[in-house]
Design a protein that fits this description.
Length: 545
């Protein structure tokens, strides 16, 4: 190992000016590489740079770096499913850096001043319909590019599903408001209680001088079970249930509650039911327990399942409800399930159905039917269809008729242009994703396309061409110190089930700095450590203690 100092690369005069950051930004010429965390983030947030800024105690810089790429850092810092961490090189030593929690910290501690409004350098105005993560990201990028941007939202509050559905104990209201007030200060105008197709049309937007429109209305919903007993009292559709609770209309629940479904929505519902007074909460889903990247396994992330279990939710995998039963004929009091298993070597039986391309086998014998008592069911299976929600084109254009298949917008999934000039459309699951950060990435691509359209350029899809730097376990030198990841301080389960407020409390400053110091700063320092066998004193102070 060679230990030197990066300061040797600089003149004495320069060292006096930039000593704090030189090894963040200027050490070695190979800085055009992407670190894997950056490549893993659909928004390409400059993770190494913001994490290093936290390590050095410069929280305002960390906040500024995050916001260059991510207009909703508070929301993402609470509930992003953080694919960046799956790629983190630190995993070859011990555990990935807690990037998502550090992003939350940067947004909370570094956001000390309101931004100045973005300079209006272009005459054109753009309308964005829908204020969810996709719409707000496009609006933010376009306002930064100098356009006038107005967002039209059907709901009474902006923010999409994060603001109207995701429970406060996962994502508190102040985190959403912090992001939205930052965007409003940048110059985005948001009008609520206005529904396209009812209160305004694409034609009326054109008359108001909007040169381009982005439709970002989220996903189509498919609520309600399609099995016998689905209409019984006590069988609740999940979105209405969660929306009511989010708006402080809280029903009192008692007895045994079953949430049906295997993703984040069902888990949010199960944890909410515990807070509303249920004596027992079960979560039943057709997938098996195991690595979520494998088809056939529960799609919800492991940390959400663990959070639910810590609070007392009982997870019951490999079950498909066949019927909701009632003694009175009006109110539910039971569920009949069928047991299924993923088709793996050694498992035999009739294929029941496929989940994300993976076959599930129907179990035989007396144990194949499982009947339980249930006082309430929250039905949260297959809530979203794999389709964007785009209101009828005839309604949008303000022309009566024109409904049906022929009236649907056709969307280019690389550029999000539609067959109507000047109209673009993005949203939940219109492309690959069903998470906030993917919806945001779609909004970003659409903003690039809209800018190109308004600049009369040919629209070309956005692609990242930088090379990624990944480290293999055999490259890791023994002298690097192994350090546990700082866990998120959170309420004890007995306390958390009593509150609808946030249960994850956020890092204290020293905790965030300690966690950030674990980062290998791959784009810079890891190049030296792993490729040149060299570690400087500044980096050694972080990684060798
Ligand atoms: C309970 C639940 C928990 C979730 N948890 C997570 C999580 O932990 N992490 C994660 O990454 N993702 C999570 N998701 C998924 C995430 O919320 C979505 O992927 C994301 O919100 C999609 O963003 P969007 O902008 O495409 O759509 P949306 O958030 O649905 O926003 C669309 C907006 O358009 C508005 N709109 C609709 N129709 C009209 C109209 N006609 N006129 C004007 N406005 C209209 C809507 O009111 C809404 O505000 C969760 C979803 C649910 C339901
Ligand atoms: S937005 Fe999500 S994926 Fe991107 S850096 Fe933040 S936590 Fe990671
Ligand atoms: S160690 Fe740091 S720079 Fe490297 S991948 Fe992880 S977060 Fe990114």
């Amino acid at each position: 190992m060679v230990v030197s100092t990066t300061l040797n690369y600089y003149s004495l005069a320069r060292r006096r000016v930039v000593p704090a950051y030189i090894h963040v930004e200027r050490c070695w010429p190979k800085v055009d590489k992407l670190s894997p965390c950056e490549a893993g983030c659909p928004l390409y947030v400059d993770v190494p740079n913001f994490v290093q800024a936290i390590a050095m105690g410069d929280f305002q810089k960390a906040n500024a770096v995050v916001r260059e790429k991510n207009p909703l850092p508070s929301i993402c810092g609470h509930v992003c499913w953080h694919p960046c961490e799956d790629e983190c090189n630190r995993d070859v030593l011990d555990k990935p850096i807690a990037i998502q929690w550090l992003e939350r910290f940067a947004a909370e501690k570094g956001n000390t001043t309101k931004p100045l409004p973005a300079a209006r350098t272009k005459e054109d105005k753009v309308a964005v319909i829908g204020s969810g993560p996709a719409g707000l990201t496009a609006a933010s990028d376009l306002v930064k590019k100098g356009y006038g941007v107005t967002v039209f939202e059907a709901s009474s509050i902006p923010g999409g599903i994060p603001a109207t559905v995701i429970p406060n104990f996962m994502l508190p209201g102040e985190a959403i408001r912090a992001d939205i007030s930052y965007l409003e200060a940048l110059g985005i105008k948001i009008h609520t209680n206005l529904r396209v197709g009812k209160d305004f049309t694409l034609a009326s937007l054109r008359q108001q001088g909007f040169k381009a429109t982005l439709i970002a209305c989220g996903a189509e919903r498919n609520e309600g079970a399609k099995i016998p007993g689905a209409n019984l009292a006590g069988v609740l559709p999940v979105m209405t249930f969660l929306q009511d609770v989010k708006m402080d209309r809280r029903p009192i629940l008692s007895g045994k509650v079953w949430a049906i479904g295997g993703d984040s929505i069902a888990i949010a519902a199960a944890r909410t039911a515990l807070r509303l007074g249920a004596s027992e909460v079960h979560l039943a889903c057709l997938e098996a327990r195991g690595d979520r990247s494998q088809p056939g396994n529960i799609p919800a992330p492991a940390w959400e399942l663990e959070a639910a279990e810590r609070e007392g939710v009982q997870i019951e995998p490999s079950l498909v409800p066949q019927e909701f039963t009632s003694k009175t004929g009006s109110k539910i009091n039971g569920i009949n399930f069928k047991r299924v298993m993923p088709l793996t070597p050694g498992v035999k039986g009739k294929i029941y159905r496929t989940v994300r391309g993976f076959p599930l086998v129907e179990m035989d014998g007396p144990d194949s039917v499982y009947s339980v008592k249930a006082d309430i069911v929250i039905y949260a299976a297959s809530v979203f269809q794999a389709k964007r929600h785009i209101p009828e084109l005839g309604d949008l254009l303000g022309t009566p008729g024109g409904k049906g298949k022929d009236a649907a917008l056709q969307v280019n999934k690389d550029t999000f242009e539609t067959n109507v000039p000047g109209v673009f459309a993005v949203g939940d699951r219109s492309g690959t994703g069903s998470h906030i950060v993917e919806a945001m990435a779609e909004g970003r691509t659409a903003a690039v396309s809209i800018d190109q359209y308004l600049s009369s350029q040919y629209i070309i899809p956005l692609k990242e061409s930088r090379v990624e730097l990944t480290i293999k376990p055999e490259q890791v030198p023994a002298y690097l110190t192994r350090k546990p990841r700082w866990e998120m301080p959170r309420l004890l389960p007995a306390e958390s089930v009593k509150t609808f407020e946030g249960v994850e409390l956020g890092y204290k400053e020293w905790q965030a700095m300690e966690e950030a110091r674990r980062c290998l700063n791959c784009r810079m320092c890891a190049n030296c450590i792993f490729e040149r066998g060299h570690i400087c004193k500044e980096t050694g102070r972080r990684l060798l203690v």
